[in-house]
Amino acid sequence: MIPIAKPMLGKEEIDVVTEVLSSGMIAQGPKVEEFELAFSEYNGCEYAAAVNSGTAALHIALLAHGIGKGDEVITSPFSFIATANSILYTGAKPVFADIESDTYNIDPEKIQEKITPKTSAIMPVHLYGHPADMKAIMEIADDNKLIVIEDACQSHGAECLGKKVGSFGTGAFSFYPTKNMTTSEGGMLTTNDKEIAEKTKMIRAHGSKVRYLHEMLGFNLRMTDIAAAIGLVQLGKLDGFTSARQKNAKILSAGLEKVSEVVPPVIKTDCTHVFHQYTIRAEKRDQLAAFLKERDIGTGIHYPIPIHKQPVYRELGYRDSLQVSEKAAEDVLSLPVHPALSRTDLQEIVETTKEFYAKD
Questions:
Q1: Which pLDDT belongs to residue 231?
Q2: Residue 220, class by beta-carbon neighbours within 10 Å (0-12 exposed, 13-18 middle, 19+ buried)?
Q3: Hey, where are the domains in the chain?
Q4: The domain 11-234 is classified under which CATH number: 3.30.1950.10, 3.10.129.10, 3.40.640.10, 3.40.50.300?
Q5: Is-same-fold flag (11-234; 238-358)?
Q6: Residue 332 burial (10 A CB sphere; 0-12, 13-18, 19+)
Q7: pTM for the full predicted model
Q8: Which tens digit of pLDDT belongs to each residue from 103-127?
Q9: What is the rounded CA–CA span in Å between residue 145 and residue 232?
């Protein structure tokens, strides 16, 4: 079986976990602080705060910026539901702007159309590992005095205009096992604003800077030293993982570019794609996925239902018509691209895809 994703864990991760367990410091401690410093330096930000998931990073970022009831946050409908749910958690309203048909990222022109007097923030998603158009988005934000919170949960190390995603506004990253690097579960918030960093660290720890002194309402959303120790090792491997994903993507695209029924991923000028997912548009998408499954090749559909059409959002009254997102949901299919793939695996994915369309 060629899986759609595979966590890349080895002896180094096992050794550091054993080290932390032996130390007795298994909750948030010095490894978390070390990981935060290393990640902020890697991402080109002044500050980073580790939390227990990417969803928590998004949620806390909004709270730290004062987003709440009465506010509107413009975001993408074509993402994992945590993107929009994090806005709902604060009492604010997600407002969905449609996406670009080639990158599947939020369309800056559609953002402009959705701005109202209640708009407080924009939450672009760097989907699949390709950066959103941050030049245009930051210009819109600056012109309208809006906060930018980047959902970079799929895009560790991706760059736009020579800057890493998560360094334009306030960034949120996920370290779920299938992401480009993992801590088993975990997340990271990045910022260049000292006040936001301090608020973040308070919110994640019951609103406290000093133990048993609680200055604001907070949560228990901390990362453990066990997770941070894994993260430090994974961060050291991240560039190697990224290079492997990019090489694998190049092989897949070279093999599929002449298949007329398939549209391979694009890479926009001044962008670095880190290929969390290698996502194609495919005619007869569901039949192709079934055919690949029969040949023991894993696939994924990211995402089969846009957020505004999810039952929970329909119950909230969302009736948006977002045609680009809805069409993408019918067509997209993610193929394996992870670093564990061999050249033989990649050739099998390409040849099996070609075989499916040739039989028609």
A1: 98
A2: exposed
A3: 11-234, 238-358
A4: 3.40.640.10
A5: no
A6: buried
A7: 0.97
A8: 999 999 999 999 999 999 999 999 9
A9: 36
